[in-house]
Design a protein that fits this description.
binds pyridoxal-5'-phosphate, alpha/beta, Aspartate Aminotransferase, domain 2, flat
């Protein structure tokens, strides 16, 4: 064995020993804490990252392309383009859809339907490309776009739907694709909360023109930061590759075509379009290559946790409303959202304060109704119909952990904490003693 390999083996063993010793994210009964997220990385990913750094080939290259192929295969799509975040994947998809390289591309003033219950960077790329977001309410059952309100929102300027599979619950893609066909609309799927989710056995992200995923720390698998766009459209892929890095043709599969067209320009620097720099690094891809095969198992745990919560919190359904898995959908539970019903004699603040005091982290359901956030005051948008359900989610909703590291002890602790809160607030203190 050469010296280099010997040193790498030592580094590998040291990282492994460190992680085996200190990476314990399981629930501790003597110090109960249930965080919203825990790392999905182990020593293997960290070694892959360090190994990549040591190779000195760290900027986007072969590992990114290999991971793109691996991810496209996982989602059953033909192509994928990795970027440095889920937000960048969303940006790239919108930028490509509003680019003259795309047939029948979106023009300034064109409208794109977005869910009120979505994330900031689901919507900002539209505004950044002079498109008009049309904000549509969610359905209080599955939390995804309300299909009736969606159809009513379609107007003469509407060109696309940019949907979100909220908290990992797939949208009803039969209905949405039928609507899109009927009204000749592009579909962009924001799958940033839904990695691994399927509808009718097919991966989310593979239904519309393009689907965007996030590998941020808190997501189903992580490359630290990172995102990826999947599509079956080769030309759209090429455009995303060009826009991802400066607008040059270098990373396009058909780079040679441009070299032949512009023989007087140095082939390394042919700028054939506008562009950004949204590139991921080889380090992100190296981590992704190891994480992806673990995804389905990590999701199994999320689904078991959600089943447990649903079963054991059902006794409080007088006060709690739960998200319903879409028929034909496989929900991957980015977190566990709960909405308080009107007759709950306590507020979100009451219950979340109680949980947080007992070290169970909570948060709003995404960020509630995006249309209520101050940024919208400055930019053109259209609110289509009432947003009453998204308002309810914002005012009466909260979420807690449902990730891969929530084990049976953590599940029981969460349910017991909620049980004792209800006993205290609703049934009076005397019953708490009995309940504990
Ligand atoms: C629906 C949705 N879209 C986009 C993003 C952005 O992803 P990232 O944090 O990787 O930029 C998120 C983040 O959680 C999200 O929930």
């Amino acid at each position: 064995m050469d010296k280099k390999q010997e040193l790498l083996n030592k580094i590998h063993d040291n990282i492994k020993e460190y992680c085996d010793t200190y990476f314990d994210f399981s629930f501790q009964t003597n110090n109960p804490v249930v965080r919203l997220h825990e790392p999905t990385t182990s020593g293997d990913e960290i070694f892959a990252a360090v190994d990549t750094m040591l190779s000195t080939f760290t900027t986007m290259g072969k590992k990114v392309r290999a991971f793109e192929n691996q991810y496209a295969q996982y989602t059953g799509t033909k192509h994928s383009v990795m970027s440095n975040s889920g937000s960048s994947a969303n940006l790239l998809a919108v930028a490509a859809l509003a680019n003259p390289f795309t047939r029948d591309y979106l023009k300034p003033g064109d409208e794109v339907i977005v869910p009120a219950l979505s994330w900031s960077t689901t919507i900002w790329p539209l505004i950044q490309h002079n498109l008009v977001p049309v904000i549509v309410d969610c359905d209080i059952n599955d939390f995804n776009l309300d299909l009736d309100k969606l159809e009513k929102a379609i107007g003469p300027k509407t060109r696309a739907i940019k949907l979100v599979h909220v908290y990992g619950n797939p949208c009803n893609m039969d209905a949405i694709m039928a609507l899109a066909k009927k009204h000749n609309l592009f579909v962009i799927e924001d799958c940033c909360e839904a990695m691994g989710a399927t509808y009718d056995g097919k991966s989310v992200g593979s239904f519309g023109l393009v689907g965007n995923f996030s590998f941020f720390f808190s997501h189903h698998i992580s490359t630290m930061e990172g995102g990826i766009s999947v599509t079956n459209d080769f030309d759209f892929t090429e455009t995303m590759r060009i826009l991802r890095a400066h607008g040059w043709s270098r990373e396009a599969d058909e780079h040679q075509k441009y070299v032949n067209m512009y023989p007087d320009i140095d082939p390394r620097f042919i700028f054939i379009n506008v562009g950004y720099n949204l590139r991921p690094t080889e380090v992100n891809a190296a981590m992704g290559q190891i994480q992806l095969p673990k995804l389905d198992k990590l999701i199994d745990n999320r689904r078991e946790t959600a089943d447990f919560y649903l079963k054991h919190l059902a006794k409080h359904s007088e006060f709690f409303h739960f998200q319903k898995e879409t028929p034909k959908g496989k929900h991957v539970w980015f977190g566990f959202p709960v909405i308080l019903k009107d007759n709950a004699p306590f507020s979100v603040k009451d219950i979340t304060t109680y949980m947080q005091q007992r070290h169970i982290e909570t948060r709003p359901v995404i960020a509630g109704n995006m249309a209520r956030h101050p940024a919208f005051k400055m930019y053109e948008h259209r609110i289509a119909g009432d947003l009453s359900s998204a308002d309810t989610v914002m005012k009466k909703g909260f979420a807690f952990a449902c990730h891969h590291a929530v084990d049976q002890h953590a599940r029981e602790y969460v349910v017991q904490t909620i049980d004792s809160f209800i006993a205290e607030f609703v049934h009076g203190r005397s019953k708490i003693t009995a309940a504990v």
